[in-house]
Write a structure and sequence with these properties.
Length: 434
């Protein structure tokens, strides 16, 4: 579980590194990259939704040792990932300014964002492919290679960023374009490693044999992954969109708030992906028990794993509080924005244990295929409760932004209660691959 958490932490750091290094280069460059990363955030959630659907099903097949079914399901998911990646790249090519205007109206930021997006858009397709293959490997308990891939990608991005953003070692100073080029090269490296590794290891792992020749598969597999995957896909899309709308609501309180939240999100999301990865590991472990029809073991393991995830999240929260006053210092911005960012970081960190426990609940429900419940539990909750409350408080109340932010975070306590009831009733106990 911890290896998976570290892999996701390092993988997210690839994009975070752009923000940090551009933050010391130019405020407009940082804002442009941060705006584009809102688009990447949605792409990331779509990639995760397909990967999580694959993990939920394939982990149960792995529990039954049906490797042929894993290969077929991966073929369906891979074809879907390529299709979505191609659609996103096309949209970013044809209507880049319109997409950026969803998140900002500043001409300077849009100009920087357009330059960044012009190159970065190609990484969306590469990320969809590599993330899907890594999810497939995770479902069969192969996680070390994914950590190696992420570390190599991070080092590649950091070295090229340093060279091209600032113009070191005789290279031109490219600023935001240099950051985008570095990320493209890092994602190419990442995708090549996972594709080549899966080819080399195909004899050891039989499910990898003929993996890239399985795009045409029986309709039954398409229906199976569609039935469980569509609610996950819809959930991640609407959840990511609701988070973007929340940020827009917070922006009513001033530009310093937007800058502060962007800085806070950069470091908080780094830790966030770690306990999301822990949740995904919970789904894999429980999925294997459910696939083997070991339901009592699954119930006992779920309690242990949820408590463990909450404990790790508590540790991350304390660590985040310790560095809350240090991280904003990496950015070339005003003292007011840095203070605002520090307060947002602390507020987010205080809710980390609750978020971690809820996330483990979420993946427990998913492990039994209860994707419609998780859709209601997550994105519908955000769209119907969190977003409207944030809008009303930001527009009509005199409350300080930090109080409003804390109120929105505290709304997740409702999820904690509902999730606890569902877990105790055992509605998630089911076998998906009979």
């Amino acid at each position: 579980m911890l290896v998976v958490a570290l892999q996701n932490l390092v993988a997210y750091s690839v994009n975070m590194l752009d923000n940090i290094m551009l933050g010391s280069y130019s405020q407009n460059a940082l804002s442009g990259a941060a705006t584009v990363n809102q688009i990447f955030f949605i792409v990331n959630q779509l990639a995760l939704s397909i990967g999580n659907a694959l993990v939920a099903i394939c982990s149960q097949y792995w529990g039954k040792q049906e490797t042929g079914a894993i290969r077929k399901m991966t073929g369906v998911a891979l074809a879907l990932s390529v299709l979505i990646g191609a659609i996103v790249v096309t949209a970013c090519t044809r209507i880049p300014e319109q997409l950026l205007r969803i998140f900002t109206t500043s001409p300077e930021i849009i100009a920087e964002g357009k330059a960044y997006l012009g190159l970065l858009k190609w990484t969306f397709l590469l990320f969809m492919i590599s993330n899907l293959l890594i999810a497939m490997l995770r479902s069969v308990e192969t996680v070390k290679i994914s950590f190696v891939i992420s570390v190599v990608s991070l080092i590649t991005n950091g070295c090229i960023n340093y060279t091209l953003i600032f113009g070191h070692f005789g290279f031109p100073e490219l600023g935001v374009v240099g950051a985008a080029l570095a990320t493209v090269l890092a994602r190419i490296t990442e995708c090549l490693i996972v594709v080549i590794w899966s080819h080399i290891k195909r004899k050891k792992h039989s499910f990898l044999v003929g993996l890239y020749r399985t795009f045409k598969v029986p309709a039954a597999q398409c229906v199976q992954i569609g039935k469980k995957g569509l609610p996950i896909f819809a959930n991640e899309f609407f959840w990511a969109s609701s988070m973007a709308v929340l940020t827009q609501n917070y922006s009513m309180k001033g530009l310093s708030v937007v800058a502060g939240i962007n800085i806070s999100n950069t470091i908080c999301n780094l830790f966030n992906v770690s306990f999301i990865a822990l949740g995904s590991s919970v789904g894999v472990i429980l999925g294997q028990y459910l696939g083997g029809k070991e339901f009592e073991k699954a119930k006992k393991a779920s309690r242990v794993l949820m408590n463990f995830t909450a404990g790790v999240s508590l540790f991350f929260g304390l660590l985040l509080i310790l560095i809350s006053g240090i991280f904003p210092g990496f950015y070339d911005t005003t003292v007011q924005v840095k203070h605002m960012a520090t307060r947002f970081i602390i507020c987010t960190a205080l809710f980390f244990p609750i978020q971690g426990y809820i996330n483990a609940m979420y993946f427990t429900l998913r492990s039994g295929g209860k994707t419609l419940i998780t859709f209601l539990f997550d994105s519908v909750f955000n769209c119907l409760i969190s977003v409207p409350v944030a809008f009303v408080l930001c527009r009509y109340s005199p409350l300080p932004i930090l109080v409003i932010y804390a109120v929105i975070q505290a709304l997740d306590l409702i999820k904690l209660v509902i999730g606890g009831i569902l877990i105790r009733k055992g509605v998630w106990i089911s076998n998906l691959v009979e």
